[in-house]
């Protein structure tokens, strides 16, 4: 999942060490639009629709990486698994990987759409769009999130979007992040565990996905599972960094036997296939029900297999290639979620008669100065008045190295990161000396009920807010 856990370690060698529903009700937050964390005037700013506003920019602009050489760090690591290497903080973005996972929920309207559909095919189309949208926030995000400390947590309740979310770092070697989310209307459960394996190949860094993602639509008594595509960051030594997603993603509806197969295409020699996604939905008898196509950086469409094949044949015969140029009125007529989808200049070749499944959200105008964050990502580390009193002491928002980096205090952030890693090392040695096993707090090891594979399952109870036995990790 993008730049993910594995770079920073609590036993990194010296060669690579750094040189220099209930929650919102319980909280009386100051949700005004603010660029400065901790600067409050006590007034609550409400949008016209009654939804609280979240901040629209970070407290400080992104720090320049131009004076730093990643090669000096990575040249000894070619072909190695990057779980023992500490990277300078300048290559980070001011979010924990647990917060990065939460970005799955940016396009939650697709889950809501799936819940509202009467037909299983239309539900699968919405779930497929959700699976693709989950990786879309990574586009141009070349900063590395902070590795979560063992026992670190992150919670997010968004009443305006209808969900709450909790995650925990349940293992450090290998790094495993477990998460659980539920609809505030008890209409869905979304959960999983992620532990990507990272490798450095000289010019690129590849994150191979591990772990199962599960979405349960409770009203329909359906469960869908899938695994993310492989993510690769190119030009880590010289040139402009860019991201590629590739591999086959299979989404299985365990109730109906329907399956969606999505092929995230590799770039290819001349970049013709860059960012392209193509696939299909089939029923339990392997009959193709529809074809899905688009780009994970732009939009996703579906059409019936016959139309798709006819179009492809005419394209091969030199037929005129039709670009997607649809007015807002047409989009609205084809998709109920048009308001969530800003106009974007697409490069996907539109097949007449196709249905729009999803379109990427526009980023804020100052996104390039904010690590290419989406508006949703900008809000994730926001620490509003009253939050500290109610959050778990292990929550990412309270983590001092991330907070200082977000505020532009890079030297302090670097020292805090080093201190936290040393504290984690010391705690591990103490446990080893006393022969004490680490105990996870909110998740436990178990078996995914749908795939039969090993998984981390939510134990419950987080939102009861009994944090008396949480570890002191900061």
Q: What attributes characterize this protein structure?
A:
alpha+beta; Porin; 15-stranded antiparallel β-sheet; disordered N terminus
Structural description of this entry:
The protein has a 15-stranded antiparallel sheet that branches. It has a two-stranded parallel ribbon with strand order 1-2. Strands 18-19 form a two-stranded antiparallel ribbon. The protein contains ten helices and 19 strands. It is α+β, with helices and mostly antiparallel strands and 474 residues long. The two termini are 25 Å apart. Residues 1-45 and 319-345 have low confidence and may be disordered. The protein is globular. It has a single domain (70-319, 352-463), classed as Porin, CATH 2.40.160. Helices cover 20% and strands 24% of the residues.
